[in-house]
Every structure is written in structure tokens, then in C-alpha cells.
Design a protein that fits this description.
Helix content is 28%, strand content 34%. By secondary structure, it is α/β, with parallel strands linked by helices. It folds into two domains: 3-12 and 59-150, Trna Endonuclease, Chain: A, domain 1 (3-Layer(aba) Sandwich), CATH 3.40.1350; 17-56, no CATH class. The strands form three sheets. It has a four-stranded mixed beta sheet. The protein has a three-stranded antiparallel beta sheet with strand order 3-2-4. The chain has a two-stranded parallel sheet with strand order 1-8. The longest helix is centred in the middle third of the chain and has 16 residues, at 59-74. It is globular, with a radius of gyration of 17 Å.
Length: 151
């Protein structure tokens, strides 16, 4: 388990992961830099299809997604979705803010919203930015959904 000294350290050291939507091959930024490819690869390097990639903000988020896919295959969870958007609107319908959840699914008939956060080395607790804390509060108050934090 990777631990960080500060939130800035966590975001600086996190690496994006790109996964092919067709064959499931994944690439992180280290692999792409070895191949001298900047950004995401245009066609998939394995199946050569011009594909749409699933983009994960960190390797930890990608590993958690792989665990959740395994849980779907085992039948422990259902209806897995990634990067689902929730909106905070006023009574007049004006959009105030959006929250994009890392993953949502049903476990035992209960709707679960999950977010992956880096771990603080000093406290042993996840880093929660003021923005995330605000969004977590309005998700609880407006949508009656508690966000589970995976760290």
C-alpha cells in the first residue's frame, strides 16, 4: 500500500492508467514513456483497434476497478458503473456543482457510491480535500447517499 506525506505528494506521484475498452489491455504512464508515447496511445498496441480508453486517475483506482469487476463475476455486486456523475441543483434547476464518483454498484440490494483516496502516511487516514468534503456533505443531504472511501 502506497502512503504519501501530503495531498500534494499524493497527486504528484499518482499516474494515470489507460485501459482498452475492447481487449482490456492497460497502460500506465511509465510503460508509455518507455515506448516514447506521449499521452494515451491512439490505437491499442495489442488489438490495433482505434478504441476508446477507460481512463483512471491513479493505479490504485485501476486496481480497485479490477477488484470490483472480479466481485461482479463472483456475484457479490451488480450493476457496476464507473465515473458516474451526480449533480447538485437549486430548486429552480440551476446547476451548482457536479460530483463524479469513481464507481457505483449495488451490494446486497443497497446502492453504493465509492471513491478512491490516497493514504496519509502520518495519520494513517485518507486525504480528503475541502472540495471532496463539501461534495460528500451535499451528496448525503441532497441525494441521501453516503460515499464510501476506499484507501
Amino acid at each position: 500500500m502506497t502512503q504519501f506525506y501530503s495531498r500534494h505528494d499524493a497527486y504528484r506521484r499518482s499516474k494515470k492508467v489507460y485501459m482498452c475498452g475492447r481487449c482490456g489491455t492497460y497502460y500506465n504512464q511509465d510503460m508509455l514513456s518507455l515506448l516514447k508515447i506521449k499521452g494515451k496511445p491512439k490505437p491499442c498496441l495489442v488489438c490495433k483497434c482505434p478504441t476508446t480508453y477507460m481512463i483512471f486517475d491513479s493505479e490504485k483506482e485501476f486496481k480497485r476497478y479490477c477488484e470490483l469487476v472480479l466481485f461482479v463475476k463472483l456475484g457479490k455486486i451488480t450493476d457496476l458503473k464507473i465515473q458516474q456523475t451526480f449533480e447538485c441543483r437549486t430548486e429552480g434547476g440551476v446547476l451548482i456543482e457536479k460530483y463524479i464518483a469513481d464507481s457505483t454498484y449495488y451490494r446486497g440490494g443497497q446502492f453504493v457510491v465509492e471513491d478512491v483516496k490516497p493514504l496519509n502516511r502520518k495519520t494513517g487516514m485518507p486525504f480528503l480535500s475541502p472540495e471532496f468534503r463539501r461534495k460528500k456533505k451535499w451528496m448525503r443531504n441532497l441525494h441521501r447517499i453516503d460515499i464510501e472511501i476506499y484507501f
